[in-house]
Amino acid sequence: MLSTEQACDRVHDIVARARAAGADASDAIFATDQSLSVSVRMGALEDVERSESAELGLRVFVGKRSASVATSDLSDAALDTLVERAIAMAREAPEDRWAGLAPEERLMHGSPPLLDLDDGGDADPQALKARALAAEDAARAVPGVTNSEGGSAGASRSVTAIATSHGFTGAYAQTSHGLSASVLAGSGGGMERDHAHHSARHASALEAPEVIGRRAGERAVARLNPVRVASGAMPVVFDRRVATSLLGHFLGAIAGAAITRKTSFLLDALGTQVFAKSVTLCDDPHRPRGLRSRPFDGEGLPVLPVTLVEGGMLETWLLDSASARQLGLSPTGHASRGIGGAPGVAPSNLFMAAGHIPPETLIGEIDHGILVTELIGQGVNGVTGDYSRGAAGFLIEKGEIMRPVSEITIASNLKDMFLALTPANDLEFRYGINAPTLRIDGMTIAGD
Where is the Metalloprotease TldD/E C-terminal domain (predicted)? Predict the structure, then answer.
């Protein structure tokens, strides 16, 4: 795998070639990755996968016309052909007055922040196998577990580099380690499955395989013999496992493209209250070892921690340069770049700040409601905010978590849900997007 310095050389070279061939401006991204994963099932090795990839994406501008191309052939001849093709495509593309590179005066300069994203270790197949086996063994040892879908462990390392023709070149490396187990409990038509997993930038930060396996087994057993629930309006508590999905819907609604296209249910909400006053949402790209930490965005702009929602008030959109120009605003450092195509937007380590109420209290105050631990389907309308998804979880009766429930649908509108939301105090940083346990009163439950 190339070093970060060599990756910088790659993108700097292709941008220079594009300018020399007649492009008015250009930017490029180079990404290389190597990964290893090991899967086991029923105590035996099932699969070992190793992959390596290296891809380069180039975007060129001819006036206000642009085109993007990508390749995995990094030979000199192929790169020359790539540049020629990109410029020819750009000359035939329609004009876009909002397109262009990020503002030159906003580009990041100097050394990037040290985020400790690369543990420098090499993946060891035997160590991965041992982790996967230990996780599955712990899951299968839980009383009531009757079968296994397996355990898996993986490790990867990647290098990403970005360059622009007006003065930015930067790169960073990151590692990723993961471990999971999935098992079944019960028998016949009454079988239930569940899983557990954990990911970390450093292998040393992974949870113990025995902890992950035991959690998977206990979750599967807890779902046995679900009951039906009568339809009606009632409080719904979102377990941390699924609470983050609500933040995903919020992000889609404040993305610059959704605002410029007028396809967001929060279209006119900037500067207004969109969540309950107890809610604060922050985005922190500088979190050490964060799963979505990054030293700069997809256009070469510096990234900084930002508060998206404070006291329930929406403070900003997520903007790349193109959407910022169209809205007459400044880019927010949230541009996200894939190998092909123009930048979009994406958060870094987004989280909802913890509330002040323990989850036991949020649940203890409910006379009749649902604790949701799994969401099914994608029944969310990003234009209207209408929300309807299949769900499974547990019945709450008189403040106690009781029998499991399944085959229900929970429904409301995201605007109403956000305003009625109460966060618990159990925030934990396990994912790229994190939220504490959340309670929303008055949702519609469709059951029997």
Answer: 231-447
* Residues 252, 274: Cα–Cα separation, whole Å: 14
State how beta strands 421-423 and 386-397 pair. unpaired
pLDDT in tens, 79-112: 999 999 999 999 999 999 999 999 999 999 988 8
Q: Rounded to whole angstroms, how far apart are CA atoms 385 and 415? A: 6
Question: Cα–Cα distance between 330 and 335 in angstroms, integer?
Answer: 12
The class of domain 4-221 in CATH terms is: alpha beta
0.90 exceeded by the pTM? yes
